[in-house]
């Protein structure tokens, strides 16, 4: 568990990881609150708080008298793409952009990271935690995961400018494709702290997988955007057939 992380936040993350790595499969019943209490060695209140948040975010669904089940997959929509950096996107709106590094650490690949990044068990992965700001106000909290074998030794300077630019210019990795999944989430204690936001308020949540020209996955990231500070533009071109 990360330092200063609330127990219910940790348990929420662990259950979410089990859902995303297909340990808890879509439509299947998850362990009872009592079983989860024993599994995590925590109180029922702590487990219930985590389950409530996951239910509000649409990952779980509760059936009266039957238990809690993993929700069916949400409908996906594709957003239009842009190659502009965050600083450029913010600058054209007349605001000053800033990226602040919260921390970089090398961790062994968890089961979720093994599946998502297609790496071996316990392979070293760089976990890069950042906050993006506009005019000094936090707008986005991001956790990015990059295999050590892809870009060994990402630095503070890389993280506080552009990771994608560093991967191209320093590590000769060209990001050819990103796949983004957008959902609504609710700020837990950690997210609220990083975004200077009230706990429980809605956030946009974007999960991104980046691939190189050969289809190799080179980055996986999870980003939370303040609902009161961010909106998204979707632009679609329709061919004249």
From TrEMBL:
Domain of life: Bacteria
CDD domains in the record: WHTH_GntR
Keywords: DNA-binding, Transcription, Transcription regulation
Gene Ontology molecular function: DNA binding; DNA-binding transcription factor activity
Pfam families for this protein: GntR, UTRA
HTH gntR-type domain segment(s): 5-73
PROSITE patterns for the chain: HTH_GNTR (PS50949)
Signal peptide range: none
GO BP field: negative regulation of DNA-templated transcription
Name of the protein in its database record: GntR family transcriptional regulator
Organism (species): Virgibacillus halodenitrificans (Bacillus halodenitrificans)
Lineage: Bacteria, Bacillati, Bacillota, Bacilli, Bacillales
């Amino acid at each position: 568990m990360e330092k200063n992380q609330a127990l219910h936040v940790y348990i929420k993350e662990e259950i979410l990881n089990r859902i995303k790595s297909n340990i808890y499969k879509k439509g299947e019943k998850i362990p009872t609150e009592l079983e989860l209490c024993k599994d995590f060695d925590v109180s029922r209140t702590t487990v219930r708080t985590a389950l409530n948040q996951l239910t509000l975010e649409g990952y779980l669904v509760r059936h009266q008298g039957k238990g809690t089940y993993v929700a069916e997959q949400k409908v996906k929509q594709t957003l239009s793409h842009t190659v502009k950096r965050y600083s450029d996107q913010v600058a054209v709106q007349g605001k000053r952009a800033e990226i602040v590094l919260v921390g970089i650490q090398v961790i062994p690949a968890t089961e979720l990271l093994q599946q998502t990044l297609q790496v071996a068990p316990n392979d070293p992965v760089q976990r890069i935690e950042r906050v993006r700001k506009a005019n000094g106000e936090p707008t986005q909290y991001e956790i990015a995961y990059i295999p050590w074998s892809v870009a060994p030794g990402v630095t503070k300077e890389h993280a506080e400018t552009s990771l994608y630019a560093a991967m191209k210019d320093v590590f000769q990795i060209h990001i050819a494709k990103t796949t983004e999944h957008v959902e609504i989430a609710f700020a837990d204690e950690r997210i609220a702290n990083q975004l200077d936001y009230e706990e429980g308020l809605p956030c946009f949540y974007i999960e991104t997988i980046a691939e190189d020209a050969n289809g190799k996955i080179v980055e996986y990231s999870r980003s939370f955007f303040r609902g009161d500070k961010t909106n998204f533009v979707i632009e679609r071109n329709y061919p004249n057939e």
